[in-house]
Each structure stands twice: as C-alpha cells, then as structure tokens.
Prior knowledge:
This protein is α+β, with helices and mostly antiparallel strands. It has helices at 5-12, 17-86, 112-120, 137-146, and strands spanning 95-101, 104-110, 123-128, 131-136, 151-153. The chain has 2 domains: 1-86; 87-153, no CATH class. It is 54% helix and 16% strand. A hairpin with a 2-residue loop joins strand 1 and strand 2 (104-110). 13% of the residues are buried.
Amino acid sequence: MGNSLSAQLLKAGLVNKKQVNKAKQDQYQANKKKQGKEEALAESKELALKAQAAQKERTRQLNEERRRQEALKGVAAQIGQIIENGKIESGHGDVAYNFADGGKIKKIYITKSIRGQLGKGQLAIVAHKGQYQVVTSPAARKIAELDASAVIVLNTPQHQPAEDDPYAAFPIPDDLEW
Length: 178
C-alpha cells in the first residue's frame, strides 16, 4: 500500500520513467490551472463586490442630490408664496430707487410713499426668479429665514445714535438720493 500507482506500474514494466515524469508534470499543470481559475474567480468576485459597492454609493449620492434639489424647489415655492402674500404693488412710480445686488447697482421705479417706507424698514426688496419685488418687512423676514440671499434691501429702523458717534449731529436726510 505504500507504493503509489505510478511506482507499481513502473515496477511492473508497463510504463517507463519518462512517462511517469510526464504524467506527474501534466497533473501538476492541471492543478496549477485549477488553482489559477479559483484565484481568478475569487478576484472577479471581489471586483464585482467593489463595483456593486461603488454603484450603491453613486446611487446614494444621486438620491441625496435629488432630495436636495427637491428641497430647494420646495423652498423656492415657499418664497414665491410668501412674496405673493406680502407683495406691495409699487406700480410704475416716478421715483428711481437704487440698490446694490451682488456687487451691481440696480434700479426700480417706485412711489415716494413706498420709498419712505423702504427707508424706515417697513418694506423690503426681495429677488425671486430674476425679478425684484417690494414686500412687507414681516414677509421679508420670513423669506430671510428660508433664503437670506433672496432679501436684497431690508433696512432696520433707526435707533438713537451712540453717545460717542462723531456724526450724531449730522443725520442722513430722508430725501437723499444716490
């Protein structure tokens, strides 16, 4: 029983030493190919798992981006609703009101009474969908809570100047145009 099949066949004279070595080499090659296939299979499984994980991450990122876009649309719709509810018809006034928006000077035409209310902080100017609207200051504050960049002009009512203010004796006139 200690003798292998190849040793027994060699002893019986059915095969020669060259044929036994050839059979051993063929068996070694077959085992090597089998092992290589198993390694390739394991490697392909690993690559498939990595690709699947990458696809899940990409899907998660796309879903998060989609949710963020939907949230922005919801905020824009809320801002539009607040503007519609708090909008003041400025009409086609005869007074030009200049204000800064994004580093550029913009101009809208309003009435004198609306201009005075803008100066006192009772009204505000907001930007929505490329247009400027005059709204009430409570509506502007609600809009600022949702999107601070949408509120362009919201003046705060002036309080008493500080005691050490060197320009306290020189108040800004209400009718100042720039």
